[in-house]
Each structure stands twice: as C-alpha cells, then as structure tokens.
Amino acid sequence: MLRNAQGRRNREQQPWDPESRGAWRKLSVGQARERDAAGLPYVVVYRMAGRDAPLEVRLVSWRDHHVGLWVYDDQGRRTHDLDLRLLDDPARLFHRYSVTWNYPDPQTAEFDPQCPRVILDLFPDGRGRRQEEPRGYSTSAGLGEDQRRMDRPTFDEWPLLSARAHGFTEPPVFEAGEVPKDDGGDPPASCWRPPRPARPGRIGELFRPGVRVTDGYHPEQTVVEPRRVGAVRVPSGLLAVSGLSTDHENGPHVTVAVPPGEYVLDEALVRFIYHCEWRDAEVTTAEPTAVRLLVSDTPAVTWEMALGPDDDPRLFIEQQTAGFDTDGATGCFADAGSFESLLSLFERGLIDGEPDLDGYEDLADGSMFLHRTWETATGRELMAFATTGDGTCPVWLGRSEAGELVSVVVLIEGMPEILPEQDRAAADV
Q1: What pLDDT score does 282 carry?
Q2: What's the rounded Cα separation, in Å, for the pair 163 and 46?
Q3: Which residues of 80-111 are buried (b: 16+ CB within 10 A; e: fewer)?
Q4: pLDDT at residue 250 above 70?
C-alpha cells in the first residue's frame, strides 16, 4: 500500500536556480530534444517578455516515467502542479497526482496553508481521491478515463496549460535547462529532481548505543542497548511483515525471502528525561523507536523500502512510502506459509480471550505490546508488536556491503532526527 507524504510535496525544490530564477545549466532547443529522445531529465521554462516570473514549467524525465507541469499566476505563485506518469502504454500519459491552488487575492502568499486547494490522488485501477484543503473534505475522485489519461505529445507539440490561464496571444519564450544528477554535486540543492520515494535515513544509528536523537518533542534522547524481545521461527523461508487486520483474505502486505530458520527480534530504545506533572518531578524513561528482525549479525550498510505485490515504483510521488496498513496500531513478523492460521490464533487469544489456548502467549512484560502465536505441528510463528498509530508503516530492508539481506526493520513512529555527535572532551566535563 502507498502513503503520500504529509504536507505540500517538493515545496523547496525548484526547476531552476532560485537566485537567478533561470534554468540551471541552460540547454539549446536541440539539446533538450536530444535529452527527451534519450529519456534523460530536462526542464523547460516558458516566459513572456518583461515578466520575471515564469508562465509554466515542464519537468520531464522519461526514464523515471514522469512529467510535471507547473503553472504560475501574475504574482509568480504556483497555481497548478500536475504529475503525469508514463506507464504501460507508450502513447498515453496517466494523471497520477495534482494540486490546484485558488488564491483569494493578490496578497495571499504562495502555498499559504489557509489557501483553498484541491488535491487529486489517482491510481490506474480506477481508485482515486479528491481532497479539499484546508477544509479537510475528502471524497471519491469520480473522474472518467478521458480525464485520467491524455495522449503523449511529441517534444514540439506540448500544449500549454497556462495559455488558458493567462490568455496570451504571442508565443512565450522557450528556455530549457539540464536537471542535475542526484549526487549532491555542484548545482544548488534547491534544483528540481524527479520525484523520489521516502528515504530510510540512518536507521542503523537507532541500534547504536550513545547516539543522540530527537523526536521533535523531546529535544534530546540517547540510544541505549537494544533489547531482545524474542525470536521468530520462519521454517518456510518466507517472512511476512503485515498489519493484523481481521480482513486478511489477501494475505500479508509484505513478504521477504529469508533462509529458513529462527531469527532474533529486538527493539531499539531511547532514554530521555521529562517532567512528570502528576509527580512534579523529573523522570527518566526509555521508549522503543523500532523493531528489528536480525537475519544476520553482519552490519547493514544500505537500506531499501520493501514493496508489496501491488506496489508500483512508477507511481511513487515525492517522499511517498509503501508498507503495511494498520487500523489497530499493531504489526507483526510471521512465517508467511501459515499467515492466516497464525493470525486466527492471535485473534482467538487476544480478541476472543479463549482460556488455555494452545499456540498463544502474551509477552508484554517489557516496554512493548508483544504477543506470540505458533503452530506446534510446523513450528511456524507470528510475533505481534505495537506501533504508535494507524496508517501505513514502511518496512526497511538492511543489506550488507555484499548486498545480502541482514535485517528487517519497522519504525515505531517515523525516523527520529539524528543529532550531531558531541565532542568527547566536552561531553566528559
């Protein structure tokens, strides 16, 4: 399942250098056409003489299946953000996502949180949502196929959405620019790049004692030694990572191939001090930030998001996540070979409260909600754990330098911010 990033996406990114308000590393029309044919990223900016703000910006990266169209008003504010995707039909573009701002007056700032806007979030299978902000009103998109797709124009035949908005009669100036490589090189960090899914962050630091983090509410927390909470046997060699919805006819949300065996499950913990009002005292406590299934003792050097069978990377918008859905603030690691029967045991033990149920155990004696179920005949197990809320929880796969899977991690509540390391001499004072 996919989850959109919260808030306005890509707010800081621009397709040109914000200092000069021009395309970064300008291209000729011929060079832009060559990049278009090769599938390489490029940007086109349309302007009118005597006008500093652009009329429209086209952001193209065929290799990323993406075309973005941004339209601006006379005050230089973005009014339309349209995200088109090239999927299985090379002659058609799919309307994946869009935001339309309706500024009430010339004084309203660009992207003002109180500015009325309409968000369309569409999927190729016919699903779609229309959301009105800041009202928070949401309904089915209700768009026909002709509104979800358009013919793919050739390089020289792109229609200008801004023509209707501005009503200009003279052709605008065409200005093309190269898109910088995503390697943090010379171009400004604000330069536009094709949409990217959410990145994992430094997940391994959550399991390294002494690292300082913050969750945004508590200014400083310190990582302590991970706590082993149990083990999960996966004799089938297929690990399930999923929510615990009672509607599980389609099986687990995410599956990961692992060598058949038993794997340690531990939780990352942070210690911090807070003021307890009812005790009127400073209290030191520890809370979990992540759960980890250790496939190997080898350290993870890279992380990637696990995808479910219905997750299509071509549809990801900026900072989007995939993972398992939960409407009960719980998830689980389990042997996928017996997922449904293990989940039924969990429901019988926790929800129905069957006394003396064989194959169910409540392990919640530490800092987490933990419940274990197992099949005596097969040795397959399920371990349920708590998250801090409902929604979509991404599953992160840690890989060794050789590319082998070494750990599977679920963050309890997003990725905390890693604070700079303290100078050792200063810390000892």
Answers
A1: 83
A2: 11
A3: bbbbbbbeeeeeebbbbbbbebebeeeebeee
A4: no
Give the chain's radius of gyration (CA, Å). Answer: 25
Write down the domain spans for the chain: 2-178, 203-427
Q: What percent of the chain has pLDDT over 70?
A: 86
Tokens of 324: 């398992």
pTM here is 0.83
Question: Distance of CA 252 to CAs 24, 358, 376, 407, Å?
Answer: 45, 23, 21, 19
* Rounded CA separation 345/338 (Å): 11
Rounded Cα distance, 32 and 24, in Å: 13
Q: Please list the helix, strand and coil fractions of the chain in percent, rounded to the nearest 5, in that order.
A: 10, 40, 45
- Residue by residue, DSSP assigns 241-253 as EEE--S--TT--S
Determine if residue 329 is left, alpha or beta; phi over 0 gives left, psi from -120 to 50 gives alpha, anything else beta: left
Handedness of CA 158, 164, 165, 169 (dihedral sign): positive
Residue type, 392: T
Which helix (H) or strand (E) segment holds residue 11: the answer is none
Residue 15 pLDDT > 80: no
Query: CA-to-CA distance for 136 and 133, rounded, in angstroms?
Result: 5
